[in-house]
Amino acid sequence: MAKSLRSQCPRKSQAGWHAPKHRRDAIETLMANSVGRVPHLVPIRYGRMMESPFAFYRGSAAIMAADLAHTPSTGMHLQVCGDCHLLNFGGYATPERRLVFDINDFDETSVGPWEWDLKRLAASLFIAAQSNGFSKDDGREAAWHATSAYRDRMAEYSEMPLLDAWYDFLDLKKIIEQIVDPDLKKLAKTRLKKATEYTAHTKEFVKLAVAEGSPPRIRDELPLIYHDDSGDPAKRRKELNRGFAHYRDTLQPQRRVLLDRFRLVDVAMKVVGVGSVGTYCGILLLVSGSGDPLFLQFKEARESVIEPYVGASVYKHHGERVVVGQRMMQSASDIFIGWTHGIARQFYVRQLRDAKITPDISVMKPLNLRNYAELCGRALARAHARTGDAVVLAAYLGKSDAFADAITSFAVDYADQNERDHDALIRAVRQGRVEAQVIE
């Protein structure tokens, strides 16, 4: 089967990027992707994307999905992340309170070409290297090491018993102990300690809630955190209760028992990320009988950016699509992850943070970025091996550097495309074609 895949899609054919003759205007694609978002938040999205080519890349998953549809593919589909850039990896605590490194964002997950995740990851690494002022060779090294680590780890999965491969995970504490750079190691240990010293919800309560009065209330921090007081309060509360009840029903029975020990006391909108800005996202504050806080985050789930090119998801509810994809790809998932719906919108729900550790790319040196790239490649291989045939994938990839060289070539070329698109956004803002708001 792998030989057949190589015949129809040689590994070297995955190299390079040339924009198709009738490529859709990038700004038109962005504007189309903004339709249905909260209107007054869309300018914040563009403002964040203007910051740098790397910030633009984080918010341009829809543009890249359209571009990837014009690239060679083996036709072998499996559960993919759909937005696999380097900041969508990180550390978090599992239900067993083990700290792992894994993919942690699945808004665009669906069944699609496995190569698309690797191409988006490799390009993000090259662009991040440029953002840090590294040389092109350093950027190439990062992209190449991510792809070669993916290849090597997939080869190992192809020889493992299936259950061993399924249960595999990347231990975050071991990863930090193996960091060679003393400054980065110290920083990682400090962040790990902060993430685990107190419960995430207690820390978030101190930052986000006004404790005076009963019940406590989420603190407004306009324009990024605010209460949506539009419409009739009674209808709004009724809709909230209905949506929360539906969310509860999507949890496993033992999780419902735990959730039922908390009561919902407040809800507020919260602007998050870059690509998600403008979608209907927010936080829920729950309090137990003894006063313990629990923060849940709800995020609007829309059609995945890759669905127009690979076909609709089998899940009609996009919140369910996200939840199922996350459970399939992660080594362990949040105990409170579920889905629900509101008026004309679909959502998924999860804990706001649970010992979440996001990498700080800006402080990395070239060697740090290369090592981080290898981690991402290994984590992606583990995720793909869950729903794909590791034997076929490993055989297609082979032992040579042909595939890694090809994906690196694509990453370098696509970084140039991304820079051109970023420039186009700046021009569009200056011309008044789109409105941008920069939040200091």
UniProtKB/TrEMBL annotation:
Residues covered by region (Disordered): 1-20
InterPro entries the record matches: DUF2252
This protein's source sits in the domain of life called Bacteria
Residue ranges under compositional bias (Polar residues)? 1-11
PANTHER family named in the record: DUF2252 DOMAIN-CONTAINING PROTEIN
Q: What is the name attached to this protein's record? A: DUF2252 domain-containing protein
